[in-house]
Amino acid sequence: MEVELLKYDETHVQFILKGSNPAFANSLRRIMISEVPTLAIDEVVFLDNTSVLFDEIIAHRLALIPLKVDPDFIRVARKNPSKYEIRFYLDIEAKKGPLTVYSGDLKTDDPHVKPISDSIPIVKLATGQKLVLEAYARIGVGREHAKWSPVSACAYKYMPIIKINESLCSLCGTCVAYCPRNVFSIENNKLIVKNPLECTLCKYCEVVCPNDAIRVKGDDTTFIFKVESVGSLPVDFIVTEAAEILKEKCETFLKLLKEIKEKGLKEEGVSEEDRAN
Ligand code: SF4
Ligand code: SF4
């Protein structure tokens, strides 16, 4: 298996996974979405709320604010998530006129955790309205609730294989004009596949070609991944942590299989020496 990096910054990554299969690619994708843990507000205690929004709506809005957290903290905390809880508090009153409460108004005792942006609106207060609360952030995973999912986008597609039969191609340019992703061009009297990675495998070029000169299919051993972090964790950490979780799951599965096999052989009366062989 091989990985080729195409694009990377702190919140986005695009890479090609080669020499793999759909089951592995999909397991990796699903673990990134639903099993890499993050921190999110999980419980809110309202001490005063005279705003127009119900407590439940404000609690829901608070839960969906992505919290930036140290990856090393997550690496340690995922082994024992119930041990960790981070308290936020908010005490704000619109004394001098209407105001908007933003994520930046949330305070915490832990300097290593904070909202990814200070400008996410929570609620608007009219003059004299007040919001006082305590919120508790906990470790969780996206399979329990989407607020814990570390990614806003995580998808892959099969690597396109585009074959042109030059003996049939009349260079009419129809595929160039109709391809929605601008994959083709005609240069020096030749049809060129200039952007193969952009192809969505829609096969429209096959349909419009008057000479049946194009064949498009997906390579089910090579996958183009695009992953976007919500900002709580660096995207490279999300990918590598997902791979680590998948490895741990496979190891656990193999261990359980071994235990089941051992148990079965023992029940059949096979000696310890023979079982070892
Ligand atoms: S399959 Fe669709 S996206 Fe791909 S080259 Fe053909 S028309 Fe373009
Ligand atoms: S539509 Fe078919 S014949 Fe026309 S340029 Fe494309 S491949 Fe060639």
Structure at a glance:
With 277 residues, the protein is an alpha+beta fold.
Could you please describe the fold and organization of this structure?
The protein has 277 residues and is α+β, with helices and mostly antiparallel strands. The protein folds into two domains: 2-34 and 151-229, Gyrase A, domain 2; 38-148, DNA-directed RNA polymerase, insert domain (RNA Polymerase Alpha Subunit, Chain A, domain 2), CATH 2.170.120. Helices cover 28% and strands 36% of the residues. The chain is built from seven helices and 14 strands. It has helices at 22-34, 55-63, 71-77, 174-178, 204-208, 235-267, 272-276, and strands at 2-8, 12-18, 38-49, 67-68, 85-93, 99-102, 107-108, 114-115, 121-125, 130-140, 151-164, 184-187, 190-193, 214-229. It has a four-stranded antiparallel beta sheet. Strand 1 and strand 2 (12-18) form a beta hairpin. The two termini are 31 Å apart. The model has no long low-confidence stretch (mean pLDDT 94). One iron/sulfur cluster binds next to strand 11 and helix 5.
Derived structural class: alpha+beta
**CATH class category of the largest domain:** Alpha Beta
Q: Mean pLDDT across all residues, rounded? A: 94
CATH topology annotation of the largest domain: Gyrase A, domain 2
Number of alpha- plus pi-helical segments: 7
Major sheet details: 4 strands, antiparallel
Count of discrete structural domains: 2
What global shape is seen? flat
Bound molecules: iron/sulfur cluster
- Rg: 27 Å
CA distance, first residue to last residue? 31 Å
CATH superfamily of the largest domain: RNA polymerase, RBP11-like subunit
Q: How much strand?
A: 35-45%
| CATH architecture level-2 label of the largest domain | 2-Layer Sandwich
Number of strands: 14
The residue fraction in helices comes out at 25-40%
